[in-house]
């Protein structure tokens, strides 16, 4: 595809440094040209993932290719919904096995449906599982749960799924690997005047029109769904990069934080988007009582809640539950937030210094009980300015 446009190369541009990425790999990159799965491109991308890990960074994979793999195995070109769902079910395991053969980490299959993502409890559970998978060093491989997804509730394309996953796991960037170098002003195969678009400040109607040309023979949605995905991530405060997953130079550049493709910077305020989401997350029924010093630190200094300030734990809750933060006495809520320790563990570290967590529990999820970015303040005094988002190094 890019060969017709070699005279219009994408310039190499610097990428903002990131810590956690969602990498989306399209079907077109995972096939061998004869209808089956091919590992050449996947191998190069797996090396890139290993390189990121060596640099101390985290990657979640959203991989397509189940339908293509099923088609290859059965030499079946069935196109109706039931046929595609059956092909996806057959192809899902070979697709996973392809990746497992290429990375050293254990791979973890995560199949999500639209329902899982709009139901807040399931959304939070998926989030907790994905975070745990990262913590233990697995490579989550997310795909749509094609078997159960009915037509009107189908996400339908993994570009949009990847955008939702990026926001679910608080990624800094969404990396979309496809079979073309990036967005061109028109379909690169059909429009001889099409030229590269290296950066998109805002995805306007005119930009969407550039992507009307449809998908390649194996993909779903083409550039259109990639731009839809980037619209979601940008609004959630996440950068997006489109690059060619069969171009060794583009892959090597990315591992050095340089992009040979299209960059769409975040324009939403990540903290504002996140706080909106937190405000609407339903409570677990659990609560944490804190001392006056901790209350002042939360409201006046924009601090995270540390275990030393916890004086009591009420109710049973899991890690990542939404809990109320209450003063030593009374029921006026000071804050609410997602907790880093389940209630039974929190009972044991209440009053401890953060440095003692590992010796008391035998593990340490985070030095905070509730990280600042996972918390919204509720009292009037709490309207004190929120400091810049700072990511703590919690696993
Ligand atoms: N303006 C455009 N710029 C680049 N590619 C485009 C454009 N419009 C349509 N496309 C098509 O989008 C394809 C990539 O999307 P798709 O086939 O869905 O791949 P994937 O399987 O990676 O999701 C390209 O191969 C190209 O055929
Ligand atoms: N869930 C489908 C992927 C659908 C899809 O979005 O494909 P693609 O456009 O290649 O990313 C599969 O695994 O085949």
From TrEMBL:
<comment type="function">
    <text>Catalyzes the transfer of a phosphate group to glutamate to form L-glutamate 5-phosphate.</text>
</comment>
<keyword id="KW-0547">Nucleotide-binding</keyword>
<protein>
    <recommendedName>
        <fullName>Glutamate 5-kinase</fullName>
        <ecNumber>2.7.2.11</ecNumber>
    </recommendedName>
</protein>
<dbReference type="InterPro" id="IPR002478">
    <property type="entry name" value="PUA"/>
</dbReference>
<dbReference type="GO" id="GO:0004349">
    <property type="term" value="F:glutamate 5-kinase activity"/>
</dbReference>
<feature type="binding site">
    <location>
        <begin position="220"/>
        <end position="226"/>
    </location>
    <ligand>
        <name>ATP</name>
    </ligand>
</feature>
<dbReference type="Pfam" id="PF00696">
    <property type="entry name" value="AA_kinase"/>
</dbReference>
<keyword id="KW-0418">Kinase</keyword>
<keyword id="KW-0808">Transferase</keyword>
<dbReference type="InterPro" id="IPR036974">
    <property type="entry name" value="PUA_sf"/>
</dbReference>
<dbReference type="InterPro" id="IPR015947">
    <property type="entry name" value="PUA-like_sf"/>
</dbReference>
<keyword id="KW-0641">Proline biosynthesis</keyword>
<dbReference type="InterPro" id="IPR001048">
    <property type="entry name" value="Asp/Glu/Uridylate_kinase"/>
</dbReference>
<dbReference type="InterPro" id="IPR005715">
    <property type="entry name" value="Glu_5kinase/COase_Synthase"/>
</dbReference>
<feature type="binding site">
    <location>
        <position position="24"/>
    </location>
    <ligand>
        <name>ATP</name>
    </ligand>
</feature>
<dbReference type="Pfam" id="PF01472">
    <property type="entry name" value="PUA"/>
</dbReference>
<comment type="similarity">
    <text>Belongs to the glutamate 5-kinase family.</text>
</comment>
<feature type="binding site">
    <location>
        <position position="158"/>
    </location>
    <ligand>
        <name>substrate</name>
    </ligand>
</feature>
<keyword id="KW-0067">ATP-binding</keyword>
<feature type="binding site">
    <location>
        <position position="146"/>
    </location>
    <ligand>
        <name>substrate</name>
    </ligand>
</feature>
<feature type="binding site">
    <location>
        <begin position="178"/>
        <end position="179"/>
    </location>
    <ligand>
        <name>ATP</name>
    </ligand>
</feature>
<dbReference type="InterPro" id="IPR001057">
    <property type="entry name" value="Glu/AcGlu_kinase"/>
</dbReference>
<dbReference type="InterPro" id="IPR036393">
    <property type="entry name" value="AceGlu_kinase-like_sf"/>
</dbReference>
<feature type="binding site">
    <location>
        <position position="64"/>
    </location>
    <ligand>
        <name>substrate</name>
    </ligand>
</feature>
<dbReference type="InterPro" id="IPR041739">
    <property type="entry name" value="G5K_ProB"/>
</dbReference>
<comment type="pathway">
    <text>Amino-acid biosynthesis; L-proline biosynthesis; L-glutamate 5-semialdehyde from L-glutamate: step 1/2.</text>
</comment>
<keyword id="KW-0028">Amino-acid biosynthesis</keyword>
<feature type="domain" description="PUA">
    <location>
        <begin position="286"/>
        <end position="370"/>
    </location>
</feature>
<dbReference type="InterPro" id="IPR011529">
    <property type="entry name" value="Glu_5kinase"/>
</dbReference>
<keyword id="KW-0963">Cytoplasm</keyword>
């Amino acid at each position: 595809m890019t060969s017709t446009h070699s005279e219009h190369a994408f310039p190499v541009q610097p990428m903002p440094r990131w810590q956690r990425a969602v990498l989306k790999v399209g079907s077109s990159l995972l096939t061998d040209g004869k209808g089956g799965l091919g590992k050449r491109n996947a191998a190069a991308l797996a090396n890139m993932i290993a390189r990121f890990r060596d640099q101390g960074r985290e990657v979640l994979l959203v991989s397509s290719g189940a339908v293509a793999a099923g088609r290859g195995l059965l030499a079946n070109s069935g196109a109706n919904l039931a046929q595609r769902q059956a092909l996806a079910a057959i192809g899902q395991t070979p697709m996973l096995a392809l990746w497992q053969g290429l990375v050293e980490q254990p791979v973890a299959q995560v199949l999500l449906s639209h329902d899982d993502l709009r139901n807040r409890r399931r959304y939070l559970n998926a989030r907790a599982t994905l975070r745990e998978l990262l913590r233990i060093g697995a490579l989550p491989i997310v795909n749509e749960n094609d078997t159960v997804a009915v037509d009107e509730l189908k996400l339908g394309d993994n570009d949009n799924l990847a955008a939702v996953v990026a926001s679910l796991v608080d990624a800094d960037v969404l990396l979309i690997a496809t079979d073309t170098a990036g967005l061109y002003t028109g379909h690169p195969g059909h429009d001889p005047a099409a030229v590269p678009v290296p950066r998109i400040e805002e995805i306007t109607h005119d930009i969407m029109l550039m992507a009307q040309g449809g998908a390649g023979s194996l993909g779903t949605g083409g550039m259109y769904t990639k731009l839809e995905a980037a619209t979601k991530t940008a609004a959630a405060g996440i950068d997006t990069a489109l690059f060619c997953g069969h171009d060794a130079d583009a892959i090597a550049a990315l591992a050095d934080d340089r992009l040979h493709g299209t960059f769409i910077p975040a324009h939403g305020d990540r903290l504002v988007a996140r706080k909106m989401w937190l405000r609407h997350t339903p409570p677990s029924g659990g609560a944490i009582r804190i001392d006056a010093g901790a209350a002042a630190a939360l409201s006046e200094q924009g601090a995270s809640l540390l275990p030393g300030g916890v004086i009591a734990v009420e109710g049973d809750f899991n890690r990542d539950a939404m809990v109320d933060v209450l003063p030593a006495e009374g029921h006026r809520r000071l804050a609410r937030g997602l907790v880093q320790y389940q209630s039974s563990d929190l009972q044991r570290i209440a009053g401890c210094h953060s440095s003692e967590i590992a010796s008391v529990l035998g593990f340490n999820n985070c030095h905070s009980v509730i990280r600042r970015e996972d918390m919204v303040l509720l009292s009037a005094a709490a309207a004190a300015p929120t400091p810049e988002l700072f990511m703590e190094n919690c696993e």
